[in-house]
Each structure stands twice: as C-alpha cells, then as structure tokens.
From TrEMBL:
It comes from the Bacteria. The keyword Transcription does not apply. GO terms for cellular component: plasma membrane. The chain crosses the membrane at residues 15-34, 40-58, 115-136. GO terms for molecular function: xenobiotic transmembrane transporter activity. PANTHER family: PTHR32063, SWARMING MOTILITY PROTEIN SWRC. This is Putative transporter protein. InterPro entries: Acrflvin-R (IPR001036). Coiled coil: none annotated. Keywords: Membrane, Transmembrane, Transmembrane helix. The lineage of its organism: Bacteria, Bacillati, Bacillota, Bacilli, Bacillales. It comes from Paenibacillus larvae subsp. larvae.
Length: 187
C-alpha cells in the first residue's frame, strides 16, 4: 500500500506557508496604501479572528483542515482585508469631515453601522457565488463541500469581525488621531 499521508501533509504545509506569505504581502500592501501603522494593524487583526471563527465552526461540524478548506481560507483573507479597510476608511472619512457633528466612539459606531448594508450585501453576493457548488453531487460535490462551507463560514466571520473589530479598535485609533497631522501623510 502507498502511504498518502506524507504528500497530503506536505500539501497542507505548503498551503499554510503560501497563506502566511499572502497575509504578509497583504499587510505590506495595506501599509503602502493606508500609510498608517495603526489603521493597518486594525485591518489585519480581523484576519486571525475571522479564521479562528472558521476553524472553530469547522471543528464543530467535524470538517478537517485540508487543501479545499485552506484554499477557501486563503480566498477569504482578501475579503477580510477588503471589508476591514472599507470600514476603517469610512471611519477616517467621517473623522475628516469638518461638518461632522459626532465625535469619538459615537462617530466610530455610526461610521461602522453606515457600512453594514454595503458589506452585508457584498458578503451575501460572495456566498451566492458559491451556492451552485451545493447542487454538485457525487465525488466532486463532496470535494467542494468543505470549500463552500468554509467560504460561507469565513464570510460570516468576516462580517462579524469587521463590524465588531473595526468599531472596537477604531476607538483606539481615535484617541490619538490628529487630522491635521494625518493629512500630511495620506494621499
């Protein structure tokens, strides 16, 4: 008999290495575009939180980590970062408005709530894209079920983390933020 354990372990390890590389690359890109370490940190904290939610739910569903689930997590990292940046940038935009009446935590919660529907609708679209995979039966359907489930779970994790984490961590950002100083560092 041929032992398939070693090649599978190697594939999973390679996938994890590539996911970590992708996450680090995403951090560098976010830092280059946002030009602010604090907002970058707020954005990237969502990554491990969302993935932790996915791993915990997959464990409860007795679905193992494999190439398909790890692939779905890798795809989800892009959504995590994107949604988090959308919320953070909306907070920044609202803080920069001279006509803004809200301040501090109220402003951050309002700006986060303002992005609720756009992020929710884009998350639903992402889930809808993978729904046809549910109709696939047989061995191919079994192969894609973990990917589809994990992508949906990650999408929920993204949604929850972006709203909680961005609003919560945004309060840390606002405590020391100076709009006049920050305008010089942002494009």
């Amino acid at each position: 008999m041929l032992d398939q354990g070693k090649p599978i372990e190697d594939s999973v390890r390679t996938m994890l290495d590539k996911a970590v590389f992708g996450a680090l690359f995403a951090v560098i890109i976010i830092l280059l575009f946002l030009r602010n370490i604090r907002t970058t940190l707020i954005s990237i904290v969502s990554i491990p939180l969302s993935l932790l939610i996915a791993v915990l739910v997959l464990k409860q569903m007795d679905i193992s980590l494999n190439i398909m689930t790890l692939g779905a997590m890798t795809v989800a990292i892009g959504r995590i970062v994107d949604d988090s940046i959308v919320v953070i940038e909306n907070i920044y935009r609202r803080m920069s408005l001279t006509s803004e009446r809200l301040k501090g935590k109220e402003l951050i919660l309002s700006a986060t709530r303002e992005m609720f529907m756009p992020i929710m609708s884009s998350t639903i679209v992402t889930i809808a894209v993978f729904l046809p995979l549910a109709a696939v039966s047989g061995p191919i359907g079994e192969l894609f079920t973990p990917f589809r489930l994990n992508d949906c779970i990650c999408a929920y994790g993204i949604f929850a983390c972006c709203h909680y984490n961005s609003a919560h961590d945004g309060t840390c950002y606002v405590q020391e933020w100076n709009p006049q100083e920050d305008k010089r560092t942002r494009a």
